[in-house]
Design goal:
Length: 197
Amino acid sequence: MTLDDLLLPDTPVCTAATDVARAYCSPALLNHCVRSYIWAAVHGAEQDIAFDPELLYVGAMFHDIALVPEFDSHTVPFDDASAHVARVFAAGAGWSESRRERLAEVVISHMLDEVDVTKDPEGHLLERSTSLDISGRHMDDFSAAFKAEVLARHPRAGIAEEFLACFRDQAERKPGSSPATALRDGIAERILTNSLD
Protein backbone atom coordinates (compact mmCIF):
# COMPACT_ATOMS: atom_id res chain seq x y z
CA MET A 1 0.00 0.00 0.00
CA THR A 2 1.13 3.55 -0.71
CA LEU A 3 -0.03 6.76 0.90
CA ASP A 4 -1.97 7.65 -2.23
CA ASP A 5 -4.05 4.50 -1.74
CA LEU A 6 -5.37 5.86 1.56
CA LEU A 7 -8.36 8.13 1.29
CA LEU A 8 -8.84 10.41 4.29
CA PRO A 9 -12.46 10.53 5.41
CA ASP A 10 -14.12 13.31 3.44
CA THR A 11 -16.96 14.38 5.73
CA PRO A 12 -17.86 17.83 7.05
CA VAL A 13 -17.05 16.65 10.58
CA CYS A 14 -13.57 15.50 9.55
CA THR A 15 -12.92 18.75 7.74
CA ALA A 16 -13.99 20.71 10.84
CA ALA A 17 -11.84 18.52 13.10
CA THR A 18 -8.83 19.21 10.88
CA ASP A 19 -9.58 22.94 10.98
CA VAL A 20 -9.70 22.92 14.79
CA ALA A 21 -6.49 20.89 15.08
CA ARG A 22 -4.73 23.19 12.60
CA ALA A 23 -5.88 26.28 14.54
CA TYR A 24 -4.53 25.10 17.89
CA CYS A 25 -1.76 22.55 17.34
CA SER A 26 1.82 23.33 16.47
CA PRO A 27 2.92 22.03 13.05
CA ALA A 28 4.72 19.15 14.77
CA LEU A 29 1.66 18.15 16.82
CA LEU A 30 -0.68 18.51 13.85
CA ASN A 31 1.53 16.26 11.73
CA HIS A 32 1.60 13.76 14.59
CA CYS A 33 -2.21 13.71 14.61
CA VAL A 34 -2.36 13.16 10.85
CA ARG A 35 0.31 10.45 10.95
CA SER A 36 -1.53 8.77 13.81
CA TYR A 37 -4.60 8.43 11.62
CA ILE A 38 -2.54 7.18 8.68
CA TRP A 39 -0.71 4.51 10.70
CA ALA A 40 -4.01 3.44 12.29
CA ALA A 41 -6.08 3.31 9.12
CA VAL A 42 -3.46 1.49 7.08
CA HIS A 43 -2.81 -1.04 9.82
CA GLY A 44 -6.54 -1.57 10.20
CA ALA A 45 -6.96 -2.14 6.47
CA GLU A 46 -3.98 -4.48 6.25
CA GLN A 47 -5.16 -6.52 9.24
CA ASP A 48 -8.82 -6.59 8.10
CA ILE A 49 -9.96 -4.74 11.22
CA ALA A 50 -13.39 -3.23 10.69
CA PHE A 51 -13.40 0.35 11.98
CA ASP A 52 -15.31 3.61 11.62
CA PRO A 53 -13.00 5.94 9.60
CA GLU A 54 -14.75 9.14 10.69
CA LEU A 55 -14.66 8.20 14.38
CA LEU A 56 -11.01 7.19 14.14
CA TYR A 57 -10.07 10.36 12.25
CA VAL A 58 -11.76 12.73 14.70
CA GLY A 59 -10.19 10.80 17.58
CA ALA A 60 -6.78 11.19 15.96
CA MET A 61 -7.26 14.93 15.51
CA PHE A 62 -8.27 15.44 19.16
CA HIS A 63 -6.32 12.83 21.10
CA ASP A 64 -3.60 15.30 22.21
CA ILE A 65 -5.54 18.58 22.00
CA ALA A 66 -5.27 19.17 25.76
CA LEU A 67 -1.49 19.37 25.46
CA VAL A 68 -1.93 22.81 23.91
CA PRO A 69 -2.20 25.74 26.35
CA GLU A 70 -5.70 26.74 25.32
CA PHE A 71 -7.15 23.36 26.38
CA ASP A 72 -4.70 22.33 29.09
CA SER A 73 -6.51 21.36 32.29
CA HIS A 74 -4.93 21.84 35.67
CA THR A 75 -7.38 19.44 37.30
CA VAL A 76 -7.58 16.36 35.05
CA PRO A 77 -5.05 14.36 33.01
CA PHE A 78 -4.52 15.55 29.45
CA ASP A 79 -6.09 12.42 27.93
CA ASP A 80 -9.29 12.99 29.92
CA ALA A 81 -9.24 16.70 29.07
CA SER A 82 -8.73 15.88 25.38
CA ALA A 83 -11.74 13.56 25.56
CA HIS A 84 -13.83 16.40 27.05
CA VAL A 85 -12.83 18.74 24.23
CA ALA A 86 -13.57 16.05 21.64
CA ARG A 87 -16.97 15.40 23.22
CA VAL A 88 -17.87 19.10 23.07
CA PHE A 89 -16.72 19.29 19.44
CA ALA A 90 -18.81 16.24 18.54
CA ALA A 91 -21.88 17.69 20.26
CA GLY A 92 -21.50 20.81 18.13
CA ALA A 93 -21.20 18.58 15.08
CA GLY A 94 -24.55 16.99 15.91
CA TRP A 95 -23.28 13.56 16.93
CA SER A 96 -25.55 11.47 19.14
CA GLU A 97 -24.73 11.09 22.81
CA SER A 98 -23.62 7.50 22.29
CA ARG A 99 -21.30 8.46 19.41
CA ARG A 100 -19.84 11.31 21.47
CA GLU A 101 -19.16 8.84 24.28
CA ARG A 102 -17.47 6.43 21.87
CA LEU A 103 -15.23 9.27 20.68
CA ALA A 104 -14.26 10.06 24.26
CA GLU A 105 -13.46 6.38 24.88
CA VAL A 106 -11.24 6.26 21.79
CA VAL A 107 -9.34 9.38 22.86
CA ILE A 108 -8.78 8.10 26.41
CA SER A 109 -7.82 4.62 25.16
CA HIS A 110 -4.85 5.91 23.21
CA MET A 111 -2.83 6.15 26.44
CA LEU A 112 -3.43 2.53 27.50
CA ASP A 113 -0.72 -0.09 27.06
CA GLU A 114 -3.03 -2.27 25.01
CA VAL A 115 -6.63 -2.06 23.80
CA ASP A 116 -8.68 -5.14 22.89
CA VAL A 117 -9.43 -4.85 19.18
CA THR A 118 -12.63 -6.89 19.54
CA LYS A 119 -14.05 -4.45 22.09
CA ASP A 120 -12.73 -1.14 20.75
CA PRO A 121 -11.22 -1.31 17.25
CA GLU A 122 -10.78 2.46 16.92
CA GLY A 123 -9.17 2.70 20.37
CA HIS A 124 -6.93 -0.25 19.52
CA LEU A 125 -5.81 1.34 16.27
CA LEU A 126 -5.24 4.77 17.80
CA GLU A 127 -3.27 3.32 20.73
CA ARG A 128 -1.12 1.33 18.34
CA SER A 129 -0.52 4.21 15.93
CA THR A 130 0.24 6.87 18.55
CA SER A 131 2.67 4.61 20.36
CA LEU A 132 4.45 3.93 17.08
CA ASP A 133 4.65 7.61 16.22
CA ILE A 134 5.80 8.78 19.65
CA SER A 135 7.80 5.95 21.21
CA GLY A 136 8.60 3.66 18.29
CA ARG A 137 6.50 0.64 19.31
CA HIS A 138 5.14 -1.66 16.59
CA MET A 139 7.75 -0.40 14.10
CA ASP A 140 7.53 -3.65 12.13
CA ASP A 141 3.89 -2.95 11.21
CA PHE A 142 5.04 -0.98 8.15
CA SER A 143 7.68 -1.24 5.47
CA ALA A 144 10.63 1.15 5.45
CA ALA A 145 9.39 2.55 2.15
CA PHE A 146 5.92 3.33 3.49
CA LYS A 147 7.30 4.94 6.65
CA ALA A 148 9.60 7.11 4.52
CA GLU A 149 6.68 8.13 2.31
CA VAL A 150 4.56 9.15 5.29
CA LEU A 151 7.39 11.11 6.90
CA ALA A 152 8.20 12.90 3.64
CA ARG A 153 4.63 14.11 3.36
CA HIS A 154 4.05 14.75 7.09
CA PRO A 155 7.47 15.53 8.65
CA ARG A 156 8.31 14.97 12.31
CA ALA A 157 9.27 18.66 12.73
CA GLY A 158 10.72 18.15 16.20
CA ILE A 159 7.77 16.25 17.69
CA ALA A 160 9.99 14.16 20.00
CA GLU A 161 11.38 17.15 21.89
CA GLU A 162 8.05 19.01 21.90
CA PHE A 163 6.08 16.00 23.08
CA LEU A 164 8.59 15.12 25.79
CA ALA A 165 8.48 18.69 27.10
CA CYS A 166 4.67 18.52 27.23
CA PHE A 167 4.78 15.19 29.07
CA ARG A 168 7.31 16.48 31.60
CA ASP A 169 5.16 19.54 32.24
CA GLN A 170 2.03 17.41 32.66
CA ALA A 171 3.83 14.99 35.00
CA GLU A 172 5.19 17.76 37.18
CA ARG A 173 1.78 19.35 37.65
CA LYS A 174 -0.20 16.10 37.74
CA PRO A 175 1.93 13.35 39.33
CA GLY A 176 -0.88 10.79 39.12
CA SER A 177 -1.43 11.29 35.40
CA SER A 178 -0.65 8.97 32.51
CA PRO A 179 2.34 11.12 31.39
CA ALA A 180 3.82 10.81 34.88
CA THR A 181 3.39 7.04 34.78
CA ALA A 182 4.86 6.85 31.28
CA LEU A 183 7.90 8.87 32.31
CA ARG A 184 8.46 6.65 35.34
CA ASP A 185 8.27 3.67 32.96
CA GLY A 186 11.04 5.05 30.74
CA ILE A 187 9.16 6.61 27.84
CA ALA A 188 11.61 9.51 27.58
CA GLU A 189 14.38 7.28 26.26
CA ARG A 190 12.00 5.57 23.83
CA ILE A 191 10.81 8.93 22.52
CA LEU A 192 14.34 10.23 22.02
CA THR A 193 15.52 7.02 20.32
CA ASN A 194 12.47 6.52 18.08
CA SER A 195 13.86 5.39 14.73
CA LEU A 196 11.31 7.56 12.90
CA ASP A 197 13.49 10.55 13.82
